[in-house]
Structures are given as structure tokens and as C-alpha cells.
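1st attempt posting a full record on here, be nice pls
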Amino acid sequence: MRRGSLVAVLGAVMAAGCVERVEVLGPPEPPDDGNATSVTDVALGAAHGCAVTATRLFCWGNNESGELGLGDQTVRTSPALVAGAWRAVAAGEHHTCALDDLGRVACFGANERGQLGLGDRDARSVPAVVTLPHAATAITTDFSHTCALLSDATLHCWGKNDEGEMGQDDPFPGNESTDADALTPVQVPGSYRAVEVGQGHTCAIRLDGTLWCWGRNTENELGDNDGIQIRTPVQVGADSDWLAVEAGQSHSGGLRADRFAHFWGENVGRDSSEGAPFGIPGVDNLTTPSRLDAPGDLASLRSDTFHSCAVDRSSNLFCWGRNIEGQLGVGDTEFRETPELVGAGYRAVAVGRFTACAVPSTGGLACAGENDDGQLGLGDTVERSVFTPVAFPP
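the predicted structure (as C-alpha cells):
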């Protein structure tokens, strides 16, 4: 999950210049309700995960770049507490960004493309605040760029930009060039209410419900738009009823008012039975948003490179796609080209590269999939093919 809420007075506090770019957040504050297993947000990176429980942030898994925010590079196989009071978190390939109670965004981990937004390319192993003109209401990151939605409906992004991920209508700098990277946040044209980032592209929903994407388009990640790369926002289709958006490595997706999932781009790995994030049988590529006919009445949709999961408004969890590592949580490692019911009684789900974590309606967190670096947070490095409860420190 990558979302946030807003306390009304925070925009003025941020605008007054109360935050410095190099600020490091202080010691953790006590939880609001004392319930350490009340998970309100969860995000999964390539080989690490993080969750917010009652304003406390816990991270676990790979830590080679400091992406756990603990001041070191030591792998953790169980959740470890990150300093600060938080309400949302987003995990990139090797970095993490979190949103605190004051609407500030703080990032840590790898920074070779400026994905921390701190004005340089130096990695950080503790949370450092990103300078933004107003309080943030939501954050998102996936690979090597990051975006924040602010209280005034403006969108600011930073990090990797060789494929136009920043939406600045700037010149193409050359293949894999770092010259165009945004080391500090830049504003994307338009006013928005939702945003998600993929590997080389970004998609966002404007206030009028229309969907806009920009960046890499080699697999029609930006819909039926010409060009393998578009460095400014372009509208995807003509519909104005988008509720949520997702962005993977080579595809995009989202929920419309019909509450069905819609996908377009490349259905990565379907032909080799090692992927299929669309859940639409027999489809390799789609140039326009196409509906997944079941399940319906969805409350949320999450998708990564090879697999996807969704929760409907009756609290049923569905997953599909790659399952070699057991990430679908269905008790085996067999490929699923179409959605399969995992179980009932869930209120949220997050997906990583080869993992998935679900939030039961009763609270807590359960994870499945690859676990070589302890990215399931279960205290070991053993893969799981069923969703297994994560234990948080009291």
C-alpha cells in the first residue's frame, strides 16, 4: 500500500520552511492505540519490507544500502523499529520513503539515481527529510524514482529520469544516462489525487478522474500513445472514472468506477508460465486498458513485475501470476494465469518482486514467497507458499 492522510494545518507548517533537507528524524514516539499488530500500511521492495503499526514503522530484509533505516547495513529477518512516528510507507528496489505525522517525507537507502530526493547521490541509512513546498498526503516508489502527492493536489517527483519518469517534457539525455536525474523534487504539470510509479514510467489520476501516464512506453505502458518514450503526461484513454492506479515494470493497471481491474502493457512472463500479472488468459500485450472480468467489486489492486493481488469489498483476497517462490500464498508453487481465491477475511495486500503480504481483517500481517534475505519478516530465510503471520515486537 502506498497512501497517506492529511492533518489540515500541516500545509502552512511546511510552507513556513520548518523542514530542512538534511533533518534526521528523532526517536520513536509511543503508538496511538498501544496495539503493535494494528497494521495500517505495508510496502514491499525487491528484497525488503516495511509496515506501519500504530504510528510505528518496522522494516526487515535486505539492508545492503541502508534501506531498513536502522543506521547500519545489517540484514534483519524480523521486523526492526525505525525511529520516528509514521503513517505511510513506500518501498523501492533498494530504498524506502515514509510519510510522518507532520506530512513530511523522509527517505533512506540507495541513492545512485537521486531517488532519496536529498540533492545528492549519497546513500543514507537513517531517515532524512525531503524538502517539499507543502505537506504530503501520499508517497509512492517502486524502483529508482519516487513521487509525493501534496496537500494542494500538486505532484512532485525525484530520482531516475532517463526515460522521462519526471514528466518534465525535457530532452532525452541518452540511453541510461544519469544527466537528467532529478536529485531534488520537481513538480509534474497538472493537479492530482492519486499516483503510482513503475520501473520506467509514472501514472497518476487527476482531480477530474482522468488517467495520465508518462515515461517509458516500449510495451504500451502509457496506453495507445505513439512513441517508445513520452516525457510529459499524456492521457490514457478518454475515461474519467478512474478510482486507483497501479504501475509495474512493463505494465500499468487500475480500478475504474465499475470496480474491476483494468490492465495494459506487457503481461510479463505469460508465455513462459513465469509471470502473467494481468490475470487475463491468452494475452501477451495490450495497447489499451482492458478489463479483468473476475473478480469484481474490488476495493484494492496491487501489481508488481510478475504477479498481482486484489482484495474485494467482501474482504476476499485473490492472487495470480508467477508463483515459483510461493508468493501467491495458495499452498503450492504452480503458475496461475487467472485469479485464484486465496481466502476470506483480508482488508489489504501488498506485492513485492517475488513476495506478497496481506493484512487480515483482524489485524497483523502475513507474508508469502521468496525469503532469501528475510524479506518475509518471519525470523528465518525459508520460503513460504502460504501466508504466514509476522511477529512484531511489543
